[in-house]
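Teaching assistant here, posting this on the class forum so everyone can see the example we discussed in section. The complex has two components, and the goal was to see what a joint structure prediction looks like when all of them are supplied at once.
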Amino acid sequence: MTTRPDPADAYRAASAALDERPADATRAVILAAAARAVDAPPRAAGKPPSRRWRIALAAAATVLISTVAVIVAQRAEREPPATVTAGPAPAPADKQDTAAPAATEPTGAARPQERPAAPSIAKAPARRDHATTAARRERAAGAVADTATVPSAAGVGAAPQLAPAAPAPPPAAFERRAAAAGDAAESAPAAAKAESPEQWLTRIIGLRRAARDDEADAELKKLRERYPQLVVPDAALRGAGTR
Amino acid sequence: MRDAPPTADVRSDEQLMLDYGTGDAAAFIQLFERHERPVYRFLLRSLGGDAARADDLLQEVWLALIRNAANYAPRARFTTWLYGIARTRLIDHWRAQRNDLSLDAANDPHADDPGEALIDRIAGARNDEPEVQVMSRAQAQAFVAAVERLPAAQREALLLHLEGELTPDEIAQLTGVGMETARSRLRYALVKLRESLEEWR
């Protein structure tokens, strides 16, 4: 019994016998192309490299623009706007002070002490009371003792601030001043509220010399109540006027 | 049918293609060595033995595969995809040559059981030892010539089956015909080749 030839087997045998193969140059081209494709940067499917670069550049540009915007905004906040202090044209001080006091009031946002060019703000010190200024200076001269004895504004119950008392001026100085200010002490009792302890003692000594011991005692008592640490010279004590 | 010597790489064609797509150059070399000659013979037989043209188309086929390596997804067998590229290149060549591209040949009246049995035998028993183990070069050339004389559609189905080891179903999907049509084409081709072989005896 003969078997029927199998065409498939025959075909395979024929191909093996003929040993057909492509040209070496063709193989080389194919293999080189395959190697180049591997060496090239890998690409994501459907995304050419130029698109990825564009996305990266867009993101960098966004960050840069945002940063610049923030910096510009911060600088604008630091610099106070010119319109806040730019008031009306510089005018004579008197007129400005009396006619439009409200316009010269520094606003909460302005910092007058940092802008010397603002005329309205610069005029403010001129409006101060000279007596107040003098009183402040007097107090500053004896500031150490004052601060030690001035009662706090919080109330009666507040404990006075005690500090080492500074040595009082020499009694002789009070006496000389008292001799020159005797008339002033008699004629200006209301000024005692704004006078310094030194001035007060001077007035008390003047009362002693004027044989007004009762008034002198009353003033001395007030003085000591207000300035308990104050050293009172002998000239201000009772009986000093007879010396 | 594979001419390449057995290699130690046991990766499937699909895995090799995926690996090449991720930058494994050695994977491509493995694929190329496996399928270089079968594809070349498929093209050569389809072109009537024109070796130069077969070289050109072979280069086009593999370069197309390289270009699409990154997008490869194993939706079907690798060989189905590979021979689909080869078939497309052939069609483009024939269109350029203004040849008759009618691959829908008339049905062969020889739709006998032996042919059907032959297809089933081939599809299910490819590892059987061939009856004809040795063939002279002259006989081989004659047999190859007979293959080349087959109607285009039958020849295509036969070569896809013998070189690409595609099943009738895969042949049908690749060529865009029904499964029965693909099976018929293959059957008729095998019957004709058998008749040729019997004449030589």
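For the discussion questions: Chain B touches chain A through 56 residues (CB under 8 Å). Chain B is about 65% helix and 0% strand. Think about how each of these relates to the inputs above.
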